[in-house]
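ok so for the tutorial part 2 we go from a plain amino acid sequence to predicted structure tokens. step 1 is just haveing the sequence, like this:
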Amino acid sequence: MNAERRDEGFGLVEIVVSLMIVLVVFLAFGLLLLRSLTEVAANGTRASASQLATQRIEEVRAAAATGSCGNVDAVASATETVEDGRGVPLTVTGYVHAGTCDQPAGDPHGNPRLARVTVEVEASGTAGTKAATSITTDLWVKQTT
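step 2 — the prediction. this is what the tokens look like for a chain of 145 residues:
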């Protein structure tokens, strides 16, 4: 009689245990998927911020050709807010480090001045404002005579 009971199929306890195991596995995959989607969105925002910072550095390099530290500072410090493809506002700003472009004008040798420029991009969203990227570079400011 015991042999016949074993062939009757699964009991309620086995079914509940197997459903719990399947539930835990699906929950783990769901959390992994959610985390992956969040990271993909964050990486897209960082890529957009990096592109904007690089674009601003190129604008500063072009301003350095004028030979004026004032022009370099004006281009670097301009504040601009742009939305990336996902609608996250990105604020681009920069500055010339103090004392890096202070070589006196009228250098008799016409030597260029070295300026250190930092461009920062911050992302604003539901999680608050946070730095998305920052680029610092040294560039020569050509002397004009």
